[in-house]
Amino acid sequence: MAPEKSAKGGERLSSKEARDKLARLLDGSLKEPSGKEGIEAHSRYYKTTSTWIEALSLTDCVALIDSADEAKSPSLILEKLYRFYGELAPQAAMKRLSGEASTPPREGTLHFQLYAEVIRGWGHKEPAKAWAYYLGLGYENGGNPFLQFRDIWWEAFDVWSKEDPDEAYKAMFSAPRFEIQHASIGYYRGLPEKADFPKEAARLESLLAESKNSERMVWSTPDWPPEQALPLLLTRKWADRDPEAALAWWMKCTPPREADDDGENASYRIGKFVESWAGEWESNSPDAALRWLAGRSDLLQFGSFRSAALPALARHRPSETISLIARIESADQQSYWVSQLVGPPAFSGEGRYEHQVPSNLLKPDLVENSLAGFHFDEEQAARVREAIERRRKYDATKPPPSPSVW
């Protein structure tokens, strides 16, 4: 089922047409995709239903919620409907859930998930007002039933920093201990292209220093503490305008963790900069990152740079990444990286520490067709061919997605 075009694309469903389609989901005559239908079907489902909901009038949105409540529908569509209700009429939506729009929900009697979705939707349209309302609920640390839904501030601050970064920064800087974690993600993800990045860099340094002194929880990842994770979000946007200034600041923010005599530590940090700029998982600016790398073959000679940057580039620009690999001076390393990136999924670590290492990123046919451009010896070529064969065997064992109406 192809998604309808939104207003930005021209055609748009009428509210009645959208309501009729969503009603079929709520009454079960149209099913959400199952796990067997594959990720592409789920992606189409999400985009299509989002388009339908965006076409609803307030009256039709409420009518669908009425019917879902009567049927006690557990559908995720209900959460999305309440989110949209929060965008259109947050006070009315909260009154529906709590009985009084001016009071917080009473624990044990209301659906905090739906209440959080209302605030999430409100934050999409009026982040400052939604934030003020939330703080006005007055919950203390550990007593806030919305803590498990605090990612709503990721989205709200993403919107807020685009519209008014000065006000959003003030709000984020004064955020309660738990909320600042996700607010900081959204703020730095949402900064507009026209942002004053040197000013934002100074602000981030202040935020990190203040957070460290007060033990407030700013965002980080298992491998990258906040003084590195948040700067990566800032530099990935700054790099589009001034990559040299962004890189210089990033390198200042991430001093060497050990002796840097051979340049490997510095090249790894530059590799992380390129990875974030290109987009570690979702595409960010891979073409800009590749243009910047065009005259920097020296970086490709460091294994630490390759381990950080090549997987992200291969995910978004596979052909160009093969060309980069061909610029590595060592033919043995060329063979290694082509084999690594074309091979089937490979994992390292155990239990909670298990993670996928760079693999399953380049298509076998693409690699096979590019081999003439390399000068491998027999052993190196055999390594690549064996990786291609293992990948094709792996692909052949994957069951095809079940048929889907989506």
Keywords for this entry:
406 residues, mainly alpha, two-stranded antiparallel ribbon, 21 helices, 2 strands, 63% helix, 1% strand, globular, disordered N terminus
Structural class: mainly alpha
Individual helix count: 21
The overall strand count is: 2
Q: How much strand?
A: under 5%
Strand order of the largest sheet: 1-2
Helix content: 55-70%
- Terminal-residue CA separation: 4 Å
Principal-axis shape: globular
Quaternary structure annotation: single chain
Low-confidence stretches: 1-10
| Biggest beta sheet summary | 2 strands, antiparallel
Order of helices and strands: HHHHHHHHHHHHHHHHHHHEEHH
Radius of gyration: 25 Å
Summed over residues and divided by their number, the pLDDT gives a mean of 87
Structure description:
The chain is mostly helical and 406 residues long. Helix content is 63%, strand content 1%. The protein has 21 helices and 2 strands. Strands 1-2 form a two-stranded antiparallel ribbon. Strand 1 (346-348) and strand 2 form a beta hairpin. The longest helix has 20 residues, at 378-397.
Please render the helix and strand layout as text:
Elements: H1 15-27, H2 39-54, H3 58-71, H4 76-88, H5 90-98, H6 112-125, H7 127-136, H8 152-163, H9 165-173, H10 180-190, H11 197-214, H12 226-241, H13 243-253, H14 264-278, H15 286-293, H16 297-300, H17 303-316, H18 318-325, H19 331-342, E1 346-348, E2 355-357, H20 364-370, H21 378-397
Antiparallel strand pairs: 1-2
Helix pairs in contact: 1-2, 1-3, 2-4, 3-4, 4-5, 4-6, 5-6, 6-7, 6-8, 7-8, 8-9, 8-10, 9-10, 10-12, 11-12, 12-13, 12-14, 14-17, 17-18, 19-21
